[in-house]
Design a protein that fits this description.
The protein has 472 residues and is α+β, with helices and mostly antiparallel strands. Helices cover 51% and strands 7% of the residues. The strands form three sheets. It has a four-stranded mixed β-sheet, covered by helices on one side. A two-stranded antiparallel ribbon has the order 1-4. The chain has a two-stranded antiparallel sheet with strand order 7-8. It starts with 16 loop residues before the first helix and ends with a helix.
Length: 472
Amino acid sequence: MNFNLNLIQTQKLVMTPELKQAIEILQYNAMELNEFVNEELLNNPILERIQSDAEEKASSEKEVESESEFEYDLDKGDSKEIDWEDMVNYFEDARPMGTLSYNPDNEVNYDNFVADEESLRDYLLTQLKLMNLSDLDMEVCAYIIENVDDNGYLKMTNDEAVVLFDIPDDKVENLIVMLQTLDPPGVFARSIEECLLIQLEQQGYDDGLETTLVKEHLNALGEKRFAQIAKILGETIENIQEAYDYIKTLEPKPGRSFSSLRDVRYIVPDVYVEKSKGDYIVMVNEVATPRLQINAFYKKMLSQMTRDTMTTEYLSKNLQAALRIIKSIEQRRNTIYRVCKAIIDYQYEFFEKGLLYLKPLNLKDIADEIEVHESTVSRAVNGKYIQCPNGLFEIKYFFQSGVKGASGEGVSSESVKSVMKEMIDREDPKKPLSDQALADALIATGIHISRRTVAKYRDEMDVLPSSKRKRF
């Protein structure tokens, strides 16, 4: 053994800062990318966003309007003398002298107005004001109302009110029971059982079979063990199922009818697909993928030679960062475009004929088509959406597993689920199709599938097994 110096050539992938940033930007969805760009615009003065054509036109019109001076007609009427009082009132009341700068915050936009919404707590407090209660009881009830969650359930213990207001426990419980009579029915419950019992009592079923089922057999009822419950209670299965149908009409979350419209979240598609003259055109959303450029002021400064060392270093550092970001965003745009174009070419029959013609597809097929790695395709489709004539889909939706069809070609899992759903919707409720019967029916249509795969797809569709779908 001895020490030697050997010269060896090797190739390895080095994660440079530019490559790392490109990978991160590629996997950003529309919202994350805009947040990243806005943060970089704040940190890097060399970067600026390119306005769209519509924004540039509106901006130029505003500039022309703001630069035009307001003129006062000094030769009003027949008299040539100047009415100074009228002139002063004109400028003070109507038009300021000089140029105006456009402020978008002053513009009246109906999108900035939100309709007044009544929350669950506001609705309950309004009903509380109509009750004839003492000041202390009113204060305790208001405190209880403030401890109701958005679903209408009471999220506090009696001990909290006992300690805070120095009143007995039975007094707090009586106030809660009184508040449980308010609208919507089932509010102020502390469990799902209590919520259902409150509604049953208000509807006159406090001594019926439905109340017994909720009190003693709610879990078994949820699992549809009707025969077992009927045997314990000495009732017929038909009566148990009829009571179950009525209990299903009750509201398990009384407060959700007061959900705010502000909680609605909209999906911004990253890609639009439109059909034109028989061809599908792919367009990457410009709003979701903003375009950036180098600021003209700093571009001019970079060309000047009279700069100190600190300025040169600062500008060079920010210029390199800006160019990396611009290049990474353009690469992201190009990659997403190529991936979606390859998906549309592969799933052409789906876009033409519908869900039943969706083919099985994996990441490797698209990666080989556009000559990139599978991980690149995975990052390009993760969390991104495509708007097409068939609807709005997550891009990952088109990557489906599947089974073999009669012609040897693959049939996607979504297509199989669609066929299964039609069969289940047409089945006899008294004799529902078992998993094996569904498998046999699918095989008869030319789809080769096993019973276990049918059971797997049925679970993914949230469809109960045949024993629990049976009507007596």
